[in-house]
Amino acid sequence: MTGQIARVIVADDQAVVREGIVMLLGLLPGIEVIGSARDGEEAVALVAELAPDVVLMDLRMPRCDGVEATRRICSEHPGTQVVVLTTYADDHSLFPALRAGARGYLTKDADGDEIVRAIQDVLAGRAGLSPVVQRRLLEQVTGAPEPTGPKLPDGLTAREGEVLTLIAEGLTNTDIARRLHISTATVKTHINNLFAKTGIHDRAQAVRYAYREGLAQPPGTTVT
After folding, report:
1. Sign of the dihedral through C-alpha 97, 100, 104, 108
2. Which of 55, 191, 193, 220 has the fewest CB atoms within 10 Å of its CB?
3. Which residue has the higher pLDDT, 16 or 130?
4. Do the Cβ atoms of 164 and 156 come closer than 8 Å?
5. Helical H runs in the chain?
6. In percent, how much of the chain has pLDDT > 90?
7. Half-sphere exposure of 106 toward its Cβ, with a 13 Å CA cutoff?
8. pLDDT at 59
9. Beta strands 31-37 and 81-86: pairing type?
10. Order of strands across the sheet with 54-57?
11. Which H, E and C letters describe 54-76, residue by residue?
């Protein structure tokens, strides 16, 4: 993709998340966002109209979900590649999307570099998969058990857990971005995702949740 600008459409039903992704992509080299869609139907229509190089596709959307939209795009518009960008990396989300024709699969804790790399990979004919997805596919093929380790509550990813812990420490979005070496738009995406998963609505609730789930210690707590 050297010297080539990738023309990208973003499909996500959550306006705040969609706008955050569009904003992030606008800061990344080699990418031009030419449209955004609120659901799979809009995504398919925009692909027919604009012929993008890549669609960044959410999976769980109304009217037409991401898997069906991916299937239609790959069938009707083979010149457009689909990279899934979703909150979920479970088997029920991952494998149907790949079978539908998606060439890439990222979770929404991906940073800008990972998104650029995935887009470059699929345009070069390679698979654009996050390390977590690559590992899951390898486990599926080899029959290896999933690694055991501490599981975060409510399906939070490791990066979302980090963000939540830093919120509980009192850090602002800018502070968190600096600490984790990611953009503030990515921090906002993580916060939106973890709020949706946990059912919390503001930072005060997030702090209480982090304390309750043992992701952070209240001030003055002695760790034994």
Report:
1. negative
2. 220
3. 16
4. yes
5. 15-26, 40-50, 66-76, 91-100, 112-123, 131-142, 158-168, 173-180, 184-198, 203-212
6. 56
7. 24
8. 92
9. unpaired
10. 31-37, 6-11, 54-57, 81-86, 104-107, 128-129
11. EEEECCCCCCCCHHHHHHHHHHH
